[in-house]
Every structure is written in structure tokens, then in C-alpha cells.
Design goal:
heterotrimer, A alpha+beta (758), B alpha+beta (155), C alpha+beta (309), B: 155 residues, alpha+beta, DNA polymerase, domain 1, 2 domains, 5-stranded mixed sheet, 5 helices, 34% helix, C: 309 residues, Uridine Diphospho-n-acetylenolpyruvylglucosamine Reductase, domain 2, Uridine Diphospho-n-acetylenolpyruvylglucosamine Reductase, domain 3, 5-stranded antiparallel sheet, 4-stranded antiparallel sheet, 21% strand, globular
Chain lengths: 758, 155, 309
């Protein structure tokens, strides 16, 4: 490759961001704009007996008021569980649920006005932990009518192959352990924000901080009853998502509704506390994990029983339920395999998708149990893992198709770079090393909303100015997807990057894309972009070949020039563009990506299917103060197989960011509730690591060159979080000899365990 | 409401402000200088850092009235359309930013820090930024970018 | 909509306070109080910002004693060569507060007088309404203990225990003039009215430390290395007369001082006194049981450093 692909490439919007010129949703302002104030429930579970809005309607600063009954159509990111409403209709299901809204002339007026809305509630029995939700309850106590068997179980996902339970009866070594994980949340820096503009031609424009304009587009149409062709959703610069901006949100429906009602632009921006209340983060989880192996350390069976606390609504929960199980099929070969996940409804803010979706907690559990087995067998934990890796080009027991696989190289790399063999189990008391591996999808092979379209389409437009504009529905959420589009176009056409510009994430101008989640963008959008610009190149070559009377295949595009090796052709890029456009003008070429047909023929076979999988292996070094239980993660060696790093800077950035986020969940982050109410909805008390809390990092990119990925690329955004947590957990064991099975691993928990040991 | 004169990035603005308003809200809502970001609004993230007579302060905790008669510099005043400050240049070059939302605050913290500490170690840089919350980068590339900026400023 | 005043002298500030009797608040740095205003916990109409008061003699070390303006920024204290040399305990305590940029605005006076905290009180208005407000706010029971008699909010100053261990006194300036009082007497073991001697519009003006101690020790328990309010702060000093002063904060409604002769103190007695005097409840994110254990651990750690030599 002679262009920018594979080279460290600063973001195309980097200067905008560094100078404060980048426009995030809340930075936009429109003439005559109104501001939304939201009234939220102070009950966890209660019927709404009455809402009195009279006093507020009379307020001259208030342009419109809305309550649940005004827009009662239900929605949700998964078409199989549309259980949300823009505002609570007959009852509230968590503290903080939106009950009513106003649009007023100023932020202050809006906030003041909503307090004038009076709501009468009749409390219902609250379900605040999953154990209660698993029990049968009275019909009018059910959080949602649609749950079966009179319980508050949202979804049970279960798959079992080759009777793992039977294997446990006769296996040489079996380990069964219970794990408990607190909920954690994305905590992106930019609060949710949305602006709706009702246009003069009776169309609606919504500017929103969303990872998936497409889902918002579809759900707005459903809730508002507005034809889908009349809605435009645009994502401006976005301040972080991590899965937390991938659902369509209630406040987006409300803001759009208020704009339609007032025919004025309306803005809604959340406070930090509201961001926490909105949550959609990783589910609090209880896991029973059982793994067996033979005397040589070959894993023979795995079975796990998982309960996830979904909160009040569905969100991505059905997918989360499956991911808690199916993504344990890698990176180790396990032929006797089973899981059951039950997702419960509770009266708390809903949980959903967060970086490493559904697979982070079970990954922790399995990697800790493998470490225990290694101890039982007196085998080095790296050796045990090396014995059990899946090969390349194979099928797992649940028929996930594994293609490229660099996991061995990942583990060998960190083992060597960290000098593992000289350090593991050899450091003084209080110092320890731990290892763990990871495995994740590179995009889901099946769409959430079934359709016959490709998963993404990219348009590449060439015009007289020589500029290529890439039109893509993909959302750059800070991961650098816009930069990737430019790199690919510049690579394929042999032109400098400044000839390429991007129009992205606008449902009016860009072809539909399923959004930035499930680590799909590089693989799917990258492939589609490559196809689109390849077509542009072919069209240009065809026209030039015809005009110059030379063979198409002899024409090269490189260094801003179009030429043949024998120098009979030597055009500048702009001269080439002129020839290509002669007689036809500006043109657009389209590329797309469709996943190959994958998977088995059984119920639940679609979960976890991906055209490619990423792999990784991390080693952590920790220091534990045995007197206080305080942990300091000193250094993490990370190796991640992303297939091919299209932009090594961005891939490193994803791995380093994953280390930070994984560290937070491992040691300090914890969504705490009292009476169903989040008690740490701020950055004082929801304890995200700062610079001084984050360890030294040694990052290696492993390139297994996937056969189907663009230039061989796979994902890097989510896979690298998986090994972080268990490598820390295992290092703590190496340091002080205690097994930490409850996250976050706060000092008090370690202190108690060390005391028990003595 | 009080009518006050505020000097922002060298220009004088006459604005009506509320007595308990913070300079963050005044900058964003009244002067439409939106480069200063509102992330936590309670002093925990550093995204709203601006300079008051050369000293970095948190916009969300600073009363606007306190800024009267002082020189306020925002991210827009660091390199408004001109050459980037070395801190900005290296944040861009080294990918010390991803989503970019915390970046203005990082710049506004690092610039005066380097003016007073021209040759910091990575650990000192980490300490100086220990009030800036970044959720994307894991801080590594930010720290390295600031060290590169220091080297450039010293050469 | 309220008033904002920016007096340039203590005298002027006191006059403004008198004019706005009962409905004003002083800002020193204001970094903590701003949040109380945003959460509707402080609703005074008038802000008297002391930030413009020209403080002379900010840090003055003379004959191994220290005089310091209460308006000195925490950063100045942590960076002062004089303080680092003679009173490293104070430098370290100041550096353990909040974040570097906050320490450039927050003052030592503000940290000494920082409001007591509780997980149920330091919340937004909507939050407090939903959970049922506490007795320190508008309710009549304690959400932590369920009791009706006492509020157990914690004093979370990190510099106060250091200064109390250093036997500091403070000068307060009120409508009647200046008064010097021992710092420890500024606190009252009450979760709601946690300061005393601050009536008559008093402004904390100066801090005096009489002498450089023989040995010192400081440790703050927190989950992260920055920002966090303390879960337990312990400052200890042995002075030149062999008096031991150990001050524990974050565990009770006020800083807890244990003062004994170096020669008569036993570790058993020390642990007992600490246990007896700290009224610790579960009002921090770190569990009460653990904080109590850590208090013992810290005390024993200090003990072993002092009594092993």
C-alpha cells in the first residue's frame, strides 16, 4: 500500500476539535428556539392517577406542554421488544423516568415551569433486585404486561451443545465459581443533546448526539406518525458514545414532538445527573461459571448460568442475553458448551449496550476460572491458554465461523514483552502478574431490523473540482470512521487525503447505515467504501483508456498522478478527472457490504454471528497493599489482533481507551442505588479513573490479515476491553493470593478477603 | 441582572448577566463562544477550563461577576484561525483526542502549565492533568502529546 | 435574582454582610459552594465574594512558626518552599485536596470551613425529594440511620486535621473585631451546625502555626489519586515538648483530636480513644466497617513509624 492506509493518520477533524471549532449538538443555536424541561418520576413503580398541567399552560414563557398520552406509541431499539414510551403513559417504572415535558423560551424558564406540573401517583410493589423479579408476582405488580408466567423475566436465552453437565461428573478437574458484577455506565463526556426543527415544507430535521441516526429515524417516524421520508436525522460532531447513544431515546421523541407542536426549533440537553439516570449501561450481572479440563489442561466443557438486571425497559437486552453466553465460544475450543441467561426487569433505569456488549462480565468469570484450573493443575496460565486456542478457519461448537485468528501471536507477544516467565509467580508478596485473553465480533452479521438490503452502502462522488466526497451513514463517534473513509479513498485513487471529504450520518443525504455499534464500521463500511472508490477508479480508467487508446489494466493511480509504467500516459489527477467526466459530468459510484450467509440451523443460531472476530491477550502487573487492600495497576501489556490496522494511531487509541474503561469497571466504577435511585450520579461519586490512576501501557497491534476485511482489517473498538478486567483480577491473586469474584474490586473487598485468608 | 463589561480574548463585550451565573454559561449562552464545553457542571472534569488573568479556572465554578475587569481567554483565544499552539498541534498529530469533547479543557490546562513548567516528566504531566476527565484515550496519547509540545516549545 | 458583591477589604465585606443580614453567603474560592448553590442546598440571595480581598503576608515563616492568610490558595501552600521545608505535613494535606486546577482557586480558609458531607445530602433537589429529604435539608429524619435525633454528616477537610495536629490557631474577624482561637475549637460535633465562633458575620482571616514539629505523618484514604473527598484522613505530629497530637477526619461530624504525652501513650489506648470519639455511620461510598478498620490500620502504621525509632 502506497497511500495512507496502514499509516499513522491524525483525524481529519482533529484541528477543529483542538481549537473548539467542532460543533457538537448543544453548540447549535437556531432563531426563535425553545428549550425543553423534563419532569421526572420520583417513584420507582407507581400508577399515574392524574397529571395537572393547567398552571403550566398558563405560563407565558411556556410554548407547549406534553405528557405521555400525547405520544403513546411505544418504541425501542429492537423491533421485538418496543416497550418504551416517550413519557410514562399509565405508570412509571423507575425513579427518573420522564413523565411530562415543556418547551419554554429559556432553559431556566423550562426548568422552573415543569416543577409546576402536579402528578398524583399510586405506588405499586417495587422490584429492585433480580431475585425478586424471578419470582411469581401478582398480575398488577408486573413491571410489563407482556412478560410471561407472571414473573418479571424479560428474556431467557439458552443454548446447550453436547451435554456439558455430564462431562462435569467425570472430568479430571472441575471448577465452579460464583461471580457478581455491579452495573457500570458509559460516562461519555458529551451529555445527551438533541435539536428538532419543524421545517416550512412540513418535514422534520433532528440534529442529535446519536450513534445510530437510522434507528432514531425509524423510531421517530413510528412514534410521531410522520412518514419516514419526511424525517431527516443528522449527527454532528459527537462527544463519545461507547454504546450509550445507540438507542433511540425518549427525549429525542419528546423534542421532535414539541417542535411539531410549536412549529419552532426546540433543544434539549441533559445535565450530567440526567445522563446517569438515562443509563443504558452494562447490566449488573450474577454468573455461575463452571469449566472442566483434563489432566493435561485441555478444556473439556463449559457451562454458565447468568442473571442480568435489565432495569425497567428492554433496550438491547435480548441481544445482551445471548452475548453473555455465545461469545464464550472463543478464543478457546470448547466442544461441550452451554449457557442460560435470564434478563429480568427491575424498577431501575434500563441497561443496554456498552463497549464489549454482554461479553465483558462472562469473560471475566471464565478467565478467572481458567486461572484457578491452571493453579489446580500446576500449569502456567499462559501455557494452559496456548493449549486451548481455536485454530484459524474453523467452526465453533455453535457454528460461529472463525477465519483469521492471531490469538497465539497476541499471547506470545505479551508473554515475551512482559518477561512473564521470569516474573509470574516470582514477584514479592503484594506484587503480581495476571494474564487473560479476549474475543469479539467485528460487526453483527444479522441486522436488528430484518431487511433485504446490504448492511451498509457508501457513495463516492467525483466532480469537476477533482474532489471526492464520500457519503456514508456511519457515525464518527470519536473512533475516527470519517478519517478511515478518507484514507481508503486516497489509497484507492492515489491522491492526497485533502482531495477527499466526507458527508456522514445524515439520513437525507447519506445512504442508510446501521450505525456505530457492535464494532461493525471498519469491517462493513470500510469494505463498502473501498468498493465505491474502486468503481470510481475503474470508471476513470475506462474513460482514459478509451481516449488515449491504451489498455485499461496498464493505468496506475498513485501520488496524485494517473500514468502507465512505460510513461506513455502521464496525467495529473485533475487532468484525469476532466477526461473521466467528459460527456457525462459529475458521477457517483456506490459500494456496499453484505455479510456472507453464516450460522447453524437452530433457534438462537444467529446470535454472535460475525464475518470476522478479533482476538487479544493482555498481561497486567499490580501492586496490592496487603494492609489496606488498595490496588495500583502499574502496567498493562496489550496485544490485539485487529486484522490490519488501517490507522495504527486510531487502533492504539482504542486499545488504550479500552484499558482505561476496563480499569474503571475492574476497580472503581459502580452504579449504586438506594431505594431504586442512583446515588452516585456525578463524577465525584461515580469513580472514573483519571490520568494519575491509569497505568503505563505497552500496546502491540497484531495483524492477522483477515481475508474478508478491508485490506485485512477487523475490529479494535470493543475487543480490547475484555482481557483488561480479568488480567487485573488474576494479577491480584498472584500478588496476595485472593480470588476476587465481585466487581468492582474495591479495597474493602480485598482487605476482607485477605483477612479471611489469615 | 447586571450590565457588565467582559474582556474575552482581547475584545470587550457588554452583557447582561445574572448575579449567580457562571462564566461557562455566559460564554456559551450569551457570547456564543461554544468551544468551552459543559460536561459535568460541577468542577469534576476540567472541560470548561478558561484563563482568568492568565490563570486556569473552571468555568462552571467561576462566577461571571468575578471576571469583570479581568482578562478572560477561552479556547477560541488560543489560536483563532491562526497557527496552532504546540499543545494543540501535538494533540492532533499524536491523536491525543478522539471524540474531542474534553480537548478544549485539556488545551486550556496544559498551555499555562507548560508556560510555568517548561520541561516536565510524563508523571508531572499526568499530575497536572489529574482534573481533566477523558473517557476515550486512556490519557496516554494526551500525556505524550503534551511532552512533545514541551519539547517543541523549548527548542 | 440576587446580588453579587466583590469587596476589596474585610471591612467592606463586613459592612455588606451587615446590610444583607441573614441572606448572604461568603465565597472564598467558591469552588465547593457553587455546587451547593446549583443543587439548591445554599439559596442565599446575596453572594459576597472575598476573592478580591488583597491578602498581605500570604505565607510567612519566621523562627519556625507560620503565619498565613486564610485567602492563600491551596496550590501556593503545596508549592511553597518554606512550607515544604518546615511544615511538609501541611504541604501534603493541601496537595491532597481536589484537583490541580481547583487548588489554584480554592483557598486554605475555604478548605478549613468546607461543609460537612453525606451521601444522602449532597444530591440534587429532585433526588432529595424522591428519596425523602433528610433532617439537615427539609425533612426530620436521618436517611442514613433512620434516627430523629442526630445528623452524622462528615467533616471532610484534609487541611483541618493537619493544622489541628500542628496546634494551629485562627484569627477570625467579625463585626466586633479580631479574635484568635484554637482551630480545633472552630468545630462542633454536630452534623448540621458544624462550626462555631463564626457568628457576627465572621470571616476567617489568618492561620498561625506556633512551631515546627519534631515528626509528622499524613495519610488520606480515597479510591482515586485525585479529586475524591476523603474517606479518612489522619494527621499526626510529635511536637518539641513530646506531645502527640493525632487528628482524624472524615469519620465524624468534626475532626477528632487525640492529644497525649508521647511517653504515656499506648497503642491500645490510642485505638480505644479513636474508636470512642468517632461517630462513624455509613454515609460515605467506602463502607463504614472498612473505614473503621482503616482507622486502626493508619493509627498502627503511624505508631510503628514513631515508636520503632
Amino acid at each position: 500500500m502506497s497511500g495512507p492506509v496502514g499509516k499513522a493518520t491524525p483525524y481529519i477533524d482533529g484541528v477543529q476539535k483542538a481549537t473548539g471549532q467542532a460543533m457538537y449538538t448543544d453548540d447549535f443555536r437556531y432563531p426563535n428556539m425553545l428549550y425543553v424541561g423534563l419532569l421526572r418520576s420520583s417513584y420507582a413503580h407507581a400508577k399515574i392517577k392524574n397529571i395537572d398541567i393547567k398552571a403550566v399552560e398558563a405560563d407565558p414563557a411556556v410554548a407547549a406542554v406534553a405528557i405521555g398520552k400525547d405520544i403513546p406509541v411505544s418504541f425501542g431499539v429492537l423491533p421485538i421488544s418496543p416497550d418504551e414510551n416517550a413519557m410514562a403513559v399509565d405508570k412509571v417504572r423507575y425513579v427518573g423516568e420522564i413523565v411530562a415535558a415543556v418547551a419554554a423560551e429559556s432553559i431556566e424558564a423550562a426548568q422552573k415551569a415543569v416543577q409546576g406540573i402536579k402528578v398524583k401517583y399510586e405506588p405499586i410493589r417495587e422490584f429492585l433486585n433480580p431475585a425478586d423479579s424471578l419470582e411469581t408476582c401478582a398480575p398488577d405488580e408486573q413491571i410489563h404486561d407482556h412478560t410471561k408466567n407472571g414473573k418479571n423475566i424479560h428474556k431467557t436465552a439458552e443454548l446447550r451443545f453436547n451435554d456439558p453437565e455430564k462431562e462435569f461428573e467425570s472430568a479430571d478437574f472441575v471448577r465452579k465459581e460464583k461471580f457478581k458484577f455491579a452495573g457500570v455506565t458509559h460516562a461519555f463526556t458529551e451529555p445527551h443533546s438533541t435539536i428538532a426543527i419543524w421545517n416550512g415544507d412540513e418535514t422534520l430535521t433532528v440534529i442529535s448526539a446519536t450513534q445510530v441516526p437510522h434507528y432514531l429515524h425509524k423510531n421517530l417516524s413510528k412514534v410521531l406518525g410522520l412518514p419516514i421520508h419526511k424525517i431527516q436525522v443528522k449527527k454532528p460532531t459527537l462527544g463519545g458514545g461507547f454504546g450509550g447513544k445507540s438507542d433511540p431515546f425518549a427525549h429525542e421523541m419528546i423534542t421532535a414532538y414539541l417542535s411539531m407542536k410549536t412549529k419552532r426549533p426546540v433543544k434539549c440537553t441533559f445535565s450530567r445527573e440526567e445522563v446517569f439516570i438515562t443509563n443504558h449501561g452494562r447490566h449488573p450481572t450474577d454468573i455461575d461459571m463452571t469449566v472442566s479440563c483434563d489432566k493435561k489442561g485441555n478444556i473439556t466443557a463449559l457451562d454458565t448460568d447468568v442473571i442480568i438486571d435489565g432495569g425497567a425497559y428492554g433496550s438491547f437486552g435480548v441481544v445482551t442475553s445471548y452475548y453473555n453466553g455465545v461469545l464464550l465460544q472463543g478464543p478457546y475450543k470448547i466442544d461441550k458448551f452451554g449457557f442460560r441467561t435470564r434478563r429480568t426487569y427491575t424498577n431501575k433505569p434500563q441497561c443496554g449496550a456498552m463497549r464489549g456488549h454482554g461479553a465483558v462480565n462472562p469473560r471475566y468469570a471464565v478467565e478467572i476460572v481458567l486461572d484457578m484450573l491452571a493453579h489446580d493443575l500446576k500449569i502456567d496460565p499462559c501455557d494452559l491458554r496456548m493449549k486451548n486456542f481455536l485454530p484459524e478457519n474453523t467452526l465453533t461448537v455453535g457454528q460461529l465461523r472463525i477465519t483469521s485468528n492471531g490469538v497465539k501471536e497476541c499471547l506470545e507477544t505479551v508473554r515475551k514483552k512482559s518477561d512473564w516467565d521470569e516474573r509470574y509467580n516470582k514477584l514479592p508478596y503484594g506484587h503480581g502478574r495476571g494474564v487473560a485473553c479476549g474475543f469479539f465480533i467485528s460487526g453483527s452479521a444479522l441486522p436488528i431490523i430484518w431487511n433485504r438490503y446490504p448492511q451498509t452502502v457508501v457513495h463516492a462522488k467525483l466532480d469537476f473540482d477533482g474532489r471526492i466526497v464520500m457519503f456514508s451513514g456511519a457515525s464518527d463517534i470519536g473512533q475516527g470512521s470519517d478519517t478511515m473513509l478518507v484514507q481508503i479513498a486516497a489509497e484507492e485513487l492515489g491522491i492526497p487525503m485533502d482531495f477527499v471529504q466526507v458527508e456522514a450520518a445524515d439520513t437525507k443525504t447519506t445512504p442508510v447505515d446501521l450505525g456505530s455499534y457492535s464494532s461493525r464500521v471498519t469491517f462493513m463500511v470500510g469494505n463498502a467504501a473501498k468498493m465505491a472508490v474502486e468503481k470510481v477508479r475503474k470508471e476513470m480508467a475506462k474513460a482514459i483508456a478509451k481516449e488515449k487508446g491504451i489498455a485499461i489494466d496498464s493505468i496506475k493511480f498513485n501520488d496524485g498522478k494517473i500514468f502507465t509504467k512505460d510513461e506513455t500516459l502521464d496525467l495529473s489527477w485533475v487532468e484525469g478527472v476532466e477526461i473521466a467526466m467528459a460527456g457525462r459530468g459529475a458521477f457517483v459510484e456506490s459500494g456496499f457490504y453484505i455479510s456472507p450467509k453464516l450460522g447453524g440451523d437452530f433457534k438462537g443460531s444467529g446470535a454472535g454471528l460475525s464475518p470476522a472476530y478479533s482476538f487479544g491477550a493482555f498481561i497486567s502487573e499490580v501492586v496490592v497493599d496487603p494492609e489496606t487492600g488498595e490496588v495500583n495497576v502499574e502496567k498493562i501489556w496489550a496485544a490485539h489482533d485487529c486484522g490490519k490496522a488501517l490507522n495504527p494511531l486510531a487502533v492504539e487509541g482504542q486499545i488504550e481507551g479500552s484499558i482505561h474503561m476496563g480499569l474503571g469497571q475492574a476497580l472503581s466504577e459502580d452504579m449504586r442505588y438506594v431505594k431504586g435511585q442512583i446515588m452516585n450520579a456525578n463524577f465525584f461519586d461515580y469513580r472514573i479513573p483519571y490520568s494519575v490512576d491509569t497505568p503505563e501501557m505497552d500496546v502491540t497491534i497484531i495483524e492477522s490479515n483477515d481475508g474478508e476485511g478491508p485490506y485485512g482489517a477487523k475490529e479494535a473498538g470493543e475487543g480490547p476491553i475484555h482481557p483488561v478486567l480479568p488480567s487485573i483480577g488474576n494479577a491480584i491473586f498472584d500478588a496476595v493470593g485472593v480470588r476476587m469474584c465481585e466487581l468492582p474490586i474495591t479495597p474493602d473487598k480485598i482487605f476482607t478477603k485477605i483477612k479471611e485468608l489469615k | 441582572m447586571d450590565k457588565v463589561e467582559l474582556n474575552v480574548n482581547g475584545f470587550s463585550h457588554t452583557v447582561l448577566v445574572d448575579s449567580s451565573e457562571t462564566i461557562l454559561d455566559t460564554l456559551r449562552n450569551r457570547l456564543y463562544l461554544t468551544g468551552t464545553k459543559k460536561c459535568c457542571d460541577e468542577g469534576t472534569c476540567g472541560s470548561c477550563t478558561v484563563h482568568l488573568d492568565g490563570k486556569p479556572v473552571l468555568g462552571c465554578l467561576t462566577p461571571t461577576m468575578r471576571c469583570v475587569g479581568k482578562k478572560i481567554v477561552t479556547i477560541e483565544g488560543i489560536s483563532a484561525g491562526e497557527d496552532l499552539h504546540p499543545v494543540q498541534k501535538h494533540l492532533v498529530k499524536n491523536l491525543g483526542l478522539q471524540c474531542g469533547f474534553c480537548t478544549p479543557g485539556v488545551v486550556m490546562t496544559a498551555v499555562p502549565y507548560l508556560e510555568n513548567n517548561p520541561d516536565p516528566s510524563i508523571d508531572e504531566i499526568k499530575n497536572s492533568l489529574s482534573g481533566n476527565l477523558c473517557r476515550c484515550t486512556g490519557y496516554k496519547k494526551i500525556n505524550e502529546a503534551i511532552q512533545s509540545a514541551a519539547e517543541e516549545m523549548n527548542s | 435574582m440576587g446580588n453579587y458583591y466583590h469587596p476589596s477589604s474585610i471591612k467592606e465585606a463586613l459592612r455588606l454582610a451587615a446590610n444583607n443580614s441573614g441572606n448572604y453567603m461568603y465565597f472564598s474560592g467558591g469552588t465547593d459552594l457553587q455546587i451547593y448553590r446549583k443543587q439548591g442546598l445554599e439559596n442565599s440571595e446575596t453572594i459576597i465574594d472575598l476573592n478580591a480581598i488583597e491578602a498581605t503576608e500570604r505565607i510567612l515563616v519566621k523562627n519556625a512558626s507560620l503565619q498565613m492568610s486564610a485567602f492563600t490558595f491551596l496550590e501556593e501552600i503545596s508549592l511553597s518552599k518554606d512550607i515544604q521545608l518546615h511544615f511538609p505535613l501541611l504541604a501534603q494535606a493541601a496537595k491532597s485536596v481536589a484537583t490541580p486546577v481547583i487548588r489554584k482557586t480554592a483557598t486554605i480558609g475555604g478548605n478549613i470551613l468546607v461543609n460537612n458531607r453525606c451521601t444522602f445530602y449532597n444530591q440534587s433537589k429532585e433526588w432529595r425529594q424522591a428519596v425523602g429529604s433528610c433532617m439537615r435539608d427539609v425533612g426530620d429524619i436521618c436517611q442514613v440511620t433512620g434516627g430523629k435525633n442526630k445528623c452524622y454528616s462528615r467533616n471532610v477537610s484534609d487541611t483541618a486535621p493537619a493544622l489541628i495536629a500542628l496546634n494551629a490557631s485562627v484569627v477570625v474577624h467579625n463585626q466586633e473585631g479580631e479574635e484568635e482561637i484554637p482551630l480545633k475549637d472552630l468545630y462542633s460535633p454536630d452534623g448540621i451546625i458544624f462550626h462555631q465562633h463564626l457568628d457576627k458575620d465572621a470571616i476567617l482571616k489568618k492561620i498561625n502555626i506556633p512551631e515546627k514539629p519534631k515528626t509528622w505523618w499524613f495519610k488520606k484514604l480515597r479510591l482515586r489519586k485525585t479529586l475524591d473527598f476523603t474517606s479518612l484522613t489522619l494527621a499526626a505530629v510529635v511536637d518539641n515538648k513530646d506531645i502527640v497530637r493525632i487528628c482524624i477526619n472524615g469519620m465524624s461530624m468534626s475532626p477528632i483530636l487525640i492529644e497525649e504525652s508521647f511517653h504515656s501513650l499506648s497503642i491500645e489506648n490510642l485505638l480505644k480513644q479513636a474508636r470512642k470519639n468517632c461517630k462513624t455511620v455509613d454515609n460515605d461510598l467506602m463502607p463504614m466497617k472498612y473505614r473503621k478498620e482503616m482507622m486502626n490500620v493508619f493509627l498502627k502504621q503511624w505508631w510503628s513509624t514513631v515508636y520503632s525509632n
